[in-house]
Give the backbone structure.
Amino acid sequence: MWKILGSLQKNLVWSIPAFMVAGILVGALTDPSALKSLIIPLTFLMVYPMMINLQIQQVLSGGDLKVQLITQLINFGVVPFFAYGMGRLFFADRPLVALGLLLASLLPTSGMTISWTGFARGNLSAAIKMTVIGLILGSVATPFYAKWLMGTVVDIPLASIFRQIVIIVFLPMILGFVTRISLIRIVGADKYHKSLKQKFPAFSTIGVLGIVFVAMALKAKDILASPTILLLFLVPLAILYAGNFLLSTLVGKFFFARGDAIALVYGTVMRNLSIALAIAMTAFGNEQGSEIALIIAMAYIIQVQAAAWYVRCTDRIFSPASREMALIEDK
């Protein structure tokens, strides 16, 4: 079972489209309304496990204030407005899709921010801090940005979004912190880090794939009526990610050392699509939520693939990691 879950997690670029197709087939051949009851449990399964490994105490560590400030400036002063502009340009007649693009840009960093930073031999400590800060700031700011930028064309249920964020972000964050502390006390820190820590992201993957499946099933008939729309979503998403990578790479290369630069790139380009999906599916109702979720699900394909390719190009962009750094990180 763990091998299957691990394979699905490592190959999201293929497993996400597979579950999208499966959801469309099920929605086309059956009545998918019964699947609505799975949204809440799948949402919890998606978010709670990732919170167990979230190291909130890292926020209190110092030494990298400049890179943290620039990261969040890009995350909240540039990327959402870029996404909003792309939504206006490509989806002027489909405001819910434009809102999905905005939601995908408003929640920076995920657990993969830390993973990809590690793969590229960047500053892991800075990446962990970016993940926590970005998650908290994004959760608080998302309702306000959505209301401000999209409130004139989409009815933004501000109170409902805040309520769902408390339920799907802050409650799991508290439970995750308690779970991690409890497990370390029960089994010891060594066993937790060596045996248990790596298993939790796989459960999040089940939730992600489940939500994607349900969202596609609920919108299957609309998708089949216009199947090319999913391919059209890839164009603005590709432009959004390419622009984000370009900006963050230039800022990192000219203003920061290699390790901080890599953390900045993954701290600004990687978005928490899981929580964006959860907000779409729980705060906007099943019909609207499914349409908003379509483009967020497509963003997984671009994000995972782009992050993997960027790791391969990192040494060319920022020069190879020093031998001393490599030895330290490999220990």
Summary: Residues 323-331 have pLDDT under 50 and may be disordered. Residues 248 and 265 are 5 Å apart (CA to CA). Residues 286-318 form the longest helix (33 residues). The domain at 9-330 is CATH 1.20.1530.20 (Na+/H+ antiporter like fold).
